[in-house]
Amino acid sequence: MDIVDLGLAAVGFTARLIADGVDWRFAHAIEVARVGPLRPQGLLVMTSDPGVYGPFGIETFTI
C-alpha cells in the first residue's frame, strides 16, 4: 500500500470532488488512480465499493 502526497493541482481536483459530496477517502483514491501524465495507464484500486469509482473511469478490483 502506498500513501501518495497530492500536489496543488491534485488538491484542487480532490477538493472539488469533496465539495460535490464524495467522501474524502474516495476522492483521494480517485485522484491518485485516474489517468494522467505521471500514470498514463492509471492505477487499479482495491475496494469493497467499486461503484464509487465507475463514473470516474477508475479500474477496480473488488475485495
Please give a structural write-up.
This protein is of the alpha+beta class and 63 residues long. It is built from two helices and two strands, in the order ααββ. The protein has helices at 8-19, 24-33; strands at residues 45-47, 60-62. Strands 1-2 form a two-stranded parallel ribbon. It is globular, with a radius of gyration of 11 Å.
Quick summary of this structure?
Helix content is 35%, strand content 10%.
User: What is the arithmetic mean of pLDDT?
Assistant: 91
**Which strand order spans the largest sheet, edge to edge or round the barrel?**
1-2
Low-confidence stretches: none
Helicity range:
25-40%
Radius of gyration: 11 Å
Shape descriptor reads: globular
Helical segment count:
2
Order of helices and strands: HHEE
Residues in β-strands, percent? 5-15%
The total beta strand count reads: 2
Cα-to-Cα separation, first versus last residue: 15 Å
Describe the sheet with the most strands: 2 strands, parallel
Task: Output the keywords.
63 residues; alpha+beta; 35% helix
Layout of helices and strands, plus pairs?
Elements lengths: L7 H12 L4 H10 L11 E3 L12 E3 L1
Parallel strand pairs: 1-2
